[in-house]
Design brief:
Length: 187
Amino acid sequence: MDKVSPKILSAFIRLSRLVHRESHKHAHDMHDHRVHRGQGHLLSLIAENAGAKQSELAEILDIRPSSMTEMLVKLEQSGLIERRQDESDQRVMRIHLTEKGEKALKASKAAILEMSGALFDSLTEEEQNQFLAIMEKLTANLEERGGELFHGGHMHGHGCSEHGRQAGRGHRRDKNCGGGHGMCRER
């Protein structure tokens, strides 16, 4: 498997880049609805948890409250959500989709269905189920490792080398890292 693993990683990275490009096209197509990358997921979460507090949404997404504030401010400025005071506690603000937000969410879901259909229609239903199971297994493995693909402090498969490509956020540089891309932090 050692000879196959790098090929799998390379194919996965290439697929990820292509999906990323398609998602940018999707974001561009959604411009009329004012939904930008990543906002569709948050709109969906708000719809599923209508009237949730900001802190509850941050907890569900496992992000800092300040990051949630930034995301909600952008959605509010676009007219996609509104904050309403809790009737029993005036200090608490509840998050709700606006009518515009509901329309944007519906359009976003339709675009995602179209994109996923186009991406996966070349696979049989059995292959799709196998692919999903494999992706879930890989995700669980990565989560068990704390979300890092480090071996001896060096991130593998993420371009942290003398090639000059950037490493992902949070990457820590050790003595084996070529650095030079400004994204590494010293341990």
